[in-house]
Automatic annotation (TrEMBL):
Organism: Winogradskyella jejuensis
CDD domains reported for this sequence: AdoMet_MTases (cd02440)
Gene3D superfamilies in the record: Vaccinia Virus protein VP39
Methyltransferase domain boundaries: 82-208
Top-level taxon of the source organism: Bacteria
Organism lineage string: Bacteria, Pseudomonadati, Bacteroidota, Flavobacteriia, Flavobacteriales
Signal peptide coordinates: 1-20
Gene Ontology terms: biological process: methylation
InterPro entries: Methyltranfer_dom, SAM-dependent_MTases_sf
SUPFAM superfamilies, per the entry: S-adenosyl-L-methionine-dependent methyltransferases (SSF53335)
Keywords: Methyltransferase, Signal, Transferase
Pfam families registered for this protein in UniProt: Methyltransf_31 (PF13847)
Protein name in UniProt: Methyltransferase domain-containing protein
A molecular function (GO) term: methyltransferase activity
Length: 237
């Protein structure tokens, strides 16, 4: 009798859990028509943008990128130490990975991307650069697939606004970060109409804080020394 009652209780709890998860999902993500650059899925009042495919590698590696974004200054903002373990989420073709890896010479740089073609591009380039501290990880729409409690710094450059599941991705990053770990969120400034990017590929500081606070982070500071982008540093709250 006890066994049957125990099984029934587990069944009820499981049903309640599944119902709660569905309810949470329904309350946090909404679906409606929006911008042609968006996927029709919204989170906290923001429409999620389409992911840029591997066909855009040429744009990521464009020669004028340093001038437009001052990527050298961005790397200095990271204050990379020799033993740092860093994760570049949405690493793309490895533009920033190959700048960070030599600085974290005794540490590690995880290059995380959901597109195998992007990881293949990094692997191919590293045949020339021969850096032994770069680790390739194929993530998913809901997970970075990073080791738990292992990362000092996470870098996301113009990619967070494309996450189809930002709640799940931030939860995954939170697990991967060490207690004093930092997230560097780099996004084109939505507050500045002079930044020549599509609306959905920009993000305001206010919106970023709202979403990250909901995930258990707080803004440490926003370094405002880049031409077009926010450089927001978040830590666990």
């Amino acid at each position: 009798m006890f066994y049957k009652g125990y099984i029934l209780l587990l069944s009820i709890l499981s049903t309640v859990s599944l119902y709660s998860q569905d309810k949470i999902s329904a309350e946090t993500y909404t679906y409606k028509k929006g911008d042609y650059s968006g996927i029709g899925k919204w989170y906290m009042g923001r429409e999620i943008a389409y992911v840029m495919g591997y066909q855009g590698i040429g744009w990521l590696e464009r020669p004028e990128r340093e001038y437009e974004e001052n990527t050298s200054k961005l790397i200095r903002n990271l204050d990379i130490q020799p033993n740092d373990v860093i994760a570049d989420i949405g690493a793309g073709s490895g533009y920033h990975v190959f700048k960070m890896a030599p600085l974290a010479k005794n540490g590690k740089v995880y290059a995380v991307d959901i597109q195998k073609e992007m990881l293949n591009a990094i692997q191919q380039e590293n045949k020339t650069q021969e850096l032994d501290n770069i680790v390739l990880i194929q993530g998913t729409e809901k997970s970075t697939n990073l080791p738990e409690d292992s990362i000092d710094k996470i870098l996301m450059v113009d990619v967070y606004h494309e996450f189809s599941f930002p709640i799940e991705m931030l939860a995954s990053m939170k697990k991967a970060l060490k207690p004093n770990g930092e997230i560097y969120l780099i996004e084109y400034r939505a507050e500045d109409d002079n930044v020549p990017m599509k609306r959905l590929h920009k993000m305001s500081e206010k919106q970023a804080i709202k979403e990250f606070e909901a995930a258990g982070f707080k803004l440490l500071k926003n370094i405002s020394n880049l031409p077009w982008q926010h450089c927001m540093i978040f830590i666990k709250s």
